[in-house]
Amino acid sequence: MELPFAESWKIKMIEPIRKSTRIEREQWLKDAYYNVFQLRAEQVYIDLITDSGTGAMSDSQWASLMIGDESYAGATSFFKMKEAINRITGFEYVLPTHQGRAAENVLFSCLVKEGDYIPGNSHFDTTKGHIESRKAFAVDCTIDEARDTQLELPFKGNVDIQKLEKVLIEHRNEIPFMIITITNNTAGGQPVSMQNMREVHQLAKKYNKPVLFDSARFAENAYFIKVREKGYENKTIKEICREMFSYADAMTMSAKKDAIVNMGGFIATNIQDWYEQAKVKGIIYEGYITYGGMNGRDMNALAVGLDENTEFENLETRIKQVEYLASQLDKFHIPYQRPAGGHAIFIDAPRMLPQVPKEEFPAQTLTVELYLEAGIRGCEIGYILADRDPVTRENRFDVNDFLRLAIPRRTYTNNHMDVIAVALKNVFDRRNDITRGVIIEWEAEIMRHFTVKLKKL
Ligand code: F0G
């Protein structure tokens, strides 16, 4: 008999978590204005709000913290990190930042100006925020198929090459660069194929435009290329990563995801001019160029994490857990973005709660219901997160309305996945009784989902 699949690690340290009662949760959520970002972490049983900075570091990573070099300038930790990035991505110039959005802020301060157009595949909210706050436009060129949650495609995060070329033709002189987000978080943690990256690269060359990879989950993307794309089955993850990055001119990285650190990020590029410009902004916003908002010890852990998480076994363990949760949801016919993403399951909320009108935010309503049901904290990636259109100030309902269940790396067991699936089933079973959702009482002008105050109807 073939042995079943199991994790490629064992557990050395644990952190207790606590259950609560429904009565407690009702009060806590009311006090939080039905916004799960406003809850205290100890009010949460299983925390799926993000996979960012919430992973469990390995013993090698913890060991590397002890020999961090905290020198202000020229720390050995910086050079260890730089070496790992050079080797894994092929980019020569490396500028540390305290996290991914800081990398965006530094780089976009140099490159994005009012009236610019930046095409890409479902820009992440901070990426869009850094574009729109500079009065530029983020044009989403993701393939249309990504919108249909029930369609099974191996590379649902892809860029639509025709849409991209149209933008390139219409705004030729207003495009400083284009972005490919790997994996495509907003579309459901969906990967981009190597072929698609190659095609974008060719198009970019034709129009003489640089390509930036938003690389938060690049290693998970490489895993999907290995297991789904013809010709890559015998390549190592590190070989696949080198080829992926050969189609880009630069990357911004939130190391809190695929480098499995609690904090950290960087810019890496082969364009010397971008690096020279970014150094100046980096010093103002982040810190000197060999630490940029990071501790020496964190740069050490980042270097080790990058190496570990570009190994097949680690990625396989991680992604198989997400697939395991998906298989449990299938048993209960719960609708989600298919196939399961790399870092998360994205529940299709309007299908799950068909009675809740869009003006009452089905995905946020589902987020609330799941927390009340079992103390599980997901997060809305839908109509609230989409913010208002900067010109018309109308809500943007032309996006998918998802409840995202982000799975932290190496943190929960499959028993926790079982609890999540049954809690969702219980909500799904009473879907016809859930007829009203939530309305907004107060919101910020941009990135409102973090601080929005809601009322439950
Ligand atoms: N790009 C992508 C694709 C992201 O998913 C994130 C963060 C960022 C950039 C920004 O990085 O948080 O280090 O500043 N995503 C987290 C999430 C917050 O929950 O998906 P950051």
Order of helices and strands: HEHHEHEHEHEHEHHEEHHHEHHEEEHEE
- Count the domains: 2
Query: What is the annotated CATH architecture of the largest domain?
Result: 3-Layer(aba) Sandwich
Radius of gyration, taken over Cα atoms and rounded to an integer in Å = 21 Å
Structural class: alpha/beta
- Helix content estimate: 25-40%
Q: Provide the list of bound ligands, each named once.
A: ligand F0G
Please count the helical segments: 15
Question: What sort of overall outline do the alpha carbons produce when their principal axes are compared?
Answer: globular
| CATH-level-4 superfamily name of the largest domain | Type I PLP-dependent aspartate aminotransferase-like (Major domain)
Average per-residue pLDDT, rounded, comes to 97
As laid out across the biggest beta sheet, the strand order is 2-8-7-6-5
